[in-house]
């Protein structure tokens, strides 16, 4: 059972959540969340439940983001929900469960900034999965999700959709845990 650095959590010992977001750009100050997803996983790395929400934006989704993710203004108008509601539902889904994101600083930065902007009274306590991979499978040239997925032979790396990326992260964690554990 491997503990995440800086965490009392040991993979394989209890349930945890994986979280991912898609955005209109790289800055929480000038860009918006377009999609939030999370999966709850049991101690054997089995998916217990999933949630995914498209989020209506106040500004147009840049063309290059639509090309990368497939998330368009039309899709968000048709199926997106209000940001505050998406944040609240995500927080309720992960609340009290150790939660991880790949490059959590990015996801946490957006989630916390947007929670503050919408006056949602909580912060997202996400830990980063990258140090976990560095410990379990050291010596890699890169630890980006598409690189790990290719190295671990996990299909779907680089999907740039939040729920798909959560599933890829889970499969990578599962394989890395077996290799390093």
Describe this structure in words.
It is a single chain. The chain is α/β, with parallel strands linked by helices and 181 residues long. It starts with a strand and ends with a helix. Residues 1-6 have low confidence and may be disordered. The strands form two sheets. It has a five-stranded mixed β-sheet with strand order 5-4-3-6-7, sandwiched between helices. A two-stranded antiparallel ribbon has the order 1-2. Helix 5 (130-136) runs parallel beside helix 7. It has a single domain (2-129), classed as Ribonuclease H-like superfamily/Ribonuclease H (Nucleotidyltransferase, domain 5, 2-Layer Sandwich), CATH 3.30.420. Strand 4 and strand 5 form a beta hairpin. The chain is 40% helix and 19% strand.
Please name the CATH topology: Nucleotidyltransferase, domain 5
- Which class do the helix and strand fractions yield? alpha/beta
Radius of gyration: 16 Å
How many helices does DSSP assign? Answer: 7
Low-confidence runs: 1-6
> What level of helicity do the residues show?
40-55%
Q: Give the CATH H-level superfamily.
A: Ribonuclease H-like superfamily/Ribonuclease H
Strand order of the largest sheet: 5-4-3-6-7
Proportion of β residues? 15-25%
Total strands: the figure is: 7
CATH architectural group: 2-Layer Sandwich
CATH class: Alpha Beta
How many domains, as an integer?
1
Give the end-to-end Cα distance, rounded to a whole number of Å: 7 Å
- How would you state the average pLDDT, rounded? 93
**Largest sheet data:** 5 strands, mixed
Keywords:
two-stranded antiparallel ribbon, alpha/beta, Nucleotidyltransferase, domain 5, 7 helices, 181 residues, disordered N terminus, globular
């Amino acid at each position: 059972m491997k503990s995440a650095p800086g965490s009392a959590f040991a993979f394989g010992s209890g349930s945890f959540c994986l979280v991912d977001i898609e955005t209109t750009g790289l800055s929480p100050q000038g860009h918006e969340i377009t999609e939030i997803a999370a999966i709850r996983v049991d101690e054997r790395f089995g998916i217990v439940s999933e949630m995914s929400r498209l989020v209506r934006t106040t500004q147009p989704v840049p063309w290059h983001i639509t090309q990368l993710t497939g998330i368009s203004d039309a899709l968000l108008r048709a199926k997106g929900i209000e940001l505050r509601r998406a944040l609240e539902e995500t927080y309720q889904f992960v609340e009290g469960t150790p939660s991880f994101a790949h490059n959590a600083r990015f996801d946490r930065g957006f989630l916390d900034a947007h929670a503050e902007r919408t006056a949602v009274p909580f912060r997202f306590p996400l830990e980063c999965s990258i140090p976990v991979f560095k410990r379990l499978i050291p010596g890699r040239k890169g630890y980006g999700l598409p690189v790990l997925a290719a190295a671990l032979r996990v299909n779907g790396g680089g999907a740039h959709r939040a729920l798909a990326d959560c599933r890829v992260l889970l499969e990578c964690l599962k394989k890395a845990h077996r290799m390093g554990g």
